[in-house]
Amino acid sequence: MNAAISGFSLGLSLILAIGAQNAFVLKQGLKREHVFLVCLTCAASDAVLILLGVMGLGIIIEQAPWLMPVMRYGGAAFLLAYGARSFIAAWRSSDVLLQAAHVKGALLPTLLTCAALTWLNPHVYLDTVLLIGSISTQFPGQKGLFAAGAMLSSFVFFFSLGYAAAWLRPIFARPMSWRVLEVVVGVTMWFIAYKLLSE
Predict the structure, then answer these.
(1) What is the pTM of this model?
(2) Are the C-beta atoms of 61 and 129 separated by less than 8 Å?
C-alpha cells in the first residue's frame, strides 16, 4: 500500500497546479458541456502516459532528442492559438452560461481540443512519463501499485474538478466573472507557451 499511496500523492501533486488542461476542464464543468467525457479523456490520457512511463518509455524519449523540440513548438503554437481564442471570447463575452444551456458545443471538437491540450504539452511527458517512470523504479516488485495510485489520482482530480465546477455557476452567471475567467485562461495558455519557447 505504501507504493500506491506514494504514487497517488506524487500524481496529485503534479496535476494540482493551474495548467492548460485544468483550465479547460474547469470551463467545461462550468458550462456543463460533455463533462464526463472530457474528464475521462484527461484521466485516461494520464493513465496511458503513466503506464508508458512505468514501462520505460522515458528511455525511448531520451534516445530521440528530436522528439521534444517537435512537441515543444507544436504545443506552444496550439497554446498561443487557444489563448488568443480565450482573449477574443473575453472581449465578446455575454452571458456564456445561459448560452451554453441552449447550445452545446460539438462533442468531437471538444474532445480533440482536450486531447491536444494533453498530448501536445511536452511538460506532460516530462512529468508523467519521465518523472513518474523514474520514481517508480524505487518500488521494485510494486511498480504496478505505484502506477495504479498515480492513475487513481488523475481520475479523482479531473472528475472532482469537472463536477465541482457546477458549484461556481452562480458566480460565473455574471458576464464579468466569465470575462475574468477567459482572461485568466488566456494568460495561463500564453504563459505556458512562453515557458515552452524559452526553454
Answers:
(1) 0.72
(2) yes
